[in-house]
Design goal:
Layout: H1 4-10, E1 23-27, H2 34-47, E2 51-54, H3 62-74, E3 90-95, E4 101-107, H4 121-132, E5 137-143, H5 149-165, E6 171-176, H6 194-204, E7 228-231, E8 235-238, E9 245-248, H7 252-265
Parallel strand pairs: 1-4, 1-5, 5-6, 6-7
Antiparallel strand pairs: 2-3, 3-4, 8-9
Helix pairs in contact: 2-7
The protein binds guanosine-5'-diphosphate and magnesium ion (MG).
Length: about 270
């Protein structure tokens, strides 16, 4: 599958060769934590015996090869933030401990999908190109606390467009990201109350949940919305330290996200 506008952006041909394996697509404004979410998830998956690989020929470009090498090295490094140095999309695979290719993932540079607070044609075209790939998509919508109203409104608008264009086999997970910034929602057990976090997101991102109102007459009796939901944070960032020090979040978060991904797609391990 050739991707015209993305290829133009990158300056080299881009091709998603595997047209069947579902693609995990994190979506959110620049700096919403897409890349670090994937890295945290992959560290967790590796610790459970899965394998993460990158697709070396997704972009035929020397810079992309360097990015791939950096990525695999960086997954084990103490400074995963360095991985964003080369601003190119990255395609990779999650392989189960039994050697089965379970998912593809695509990590877009910070602002490619969400450049400004107004919809600009470029990012809409990139999104449409990803949507038009025949693979089922699992969209991870990264909702971050305390964004300016304008960005929140635009986030909901874009998700609405994605939902309109998506097909039946696509799945949507709302990720309440950076919950470490909401310490008031944490209970004595060290994790936030999922129901309360969910209500906060509903309140902050007006109209977001309504995009996913379940219409099936039976299903809606026990599940009013068709999205999946998870609280998440990737790392503790210890500020004012040189070099920057970070600690991985508890396995609870990537574990929760992984369960939702498996639940909504029912792939074999
Ligand atoms: N507090 C907090 N900050 C985060 C978290 N994840 C990312 N960040 C911050 O957001 C910045 C951008 O993260 P990144 O994953 O590169 O965002 P991307 O542009 O969406 O890929 C990081 O440098 C961190 O400062 C998180 O879980 N908690
Ligand atoms: Mg990124």
């Amino acid at each position: 599958m050739k991707i015209q506008y993305l290829s133009q952006y990158v300056g080299s041909p881009i091709c998603i060769a595997d047209k069947a394996t579902p693609i995990i697509v994190p979506f959110g404004p620049r700096c919403s934590g897409k890349s670090l979410l994937l890295i945290r998830l992959f560290r967790y998956l590796r610790s459970c015996g899965n394998v993460i690989t990158v697709d070396n020929i997704f972009i035929r470009d020397q810079r992309y090869k360097m990015k791939c090498d950096d990525y695999i090295y960086g997954l084990s490094s103490r400074f995963p933030e360095q991985l964003n140095k080369i601003r190119l999309p990255l395609l990779g695979y999650i392989i189960s401990c039994r050697g089965r290719k379970m998912y593809q993932f695509i990590d877009m540079p910070g602002d490619m999908f969400f450049n400004r607070d107004e919809i600009d044609d470029q990012s809409t075209m990139y999104i449409s190109e990803i949507i038009s790939c025949p693979n089922p998509k699992i969209w991870l919508f990264l909702a971050e606390p305390n964004l300016p109203l304008r960005t929140r409104t635009e986030f909901v608008n874009r998700i609405s467009k994605i939902c309109d264009l998506s097909c039946k086999k696509d799945r949507f997970i709302i990720v309440a990201n950076k919950v470490d910034r909401l310490p008031h929602l944490f209970g004595n057990n060290g994790v936030p109350d999922v129901g309360i976090v969910c209500q906060e997101i509903k309140h902050e991102f007006e109209g977001l949940f309504d995009l996913f109102k379940e219409t099936h007459p039976i299903k809606k009796l026990w599940k009013p919305y068709s999205f999946y939901f998870t609280p998440f944070y990737s790392f503790d960032f210890i500020e004012n330290q040189h070099p920057l020090r970070i600690h991985s979040s508890s396995d609870y978060y990537p574990g929760f996200l992984w369960k939702e991904i498996i639940k909504c797609t029912k792939v074999k391990i």
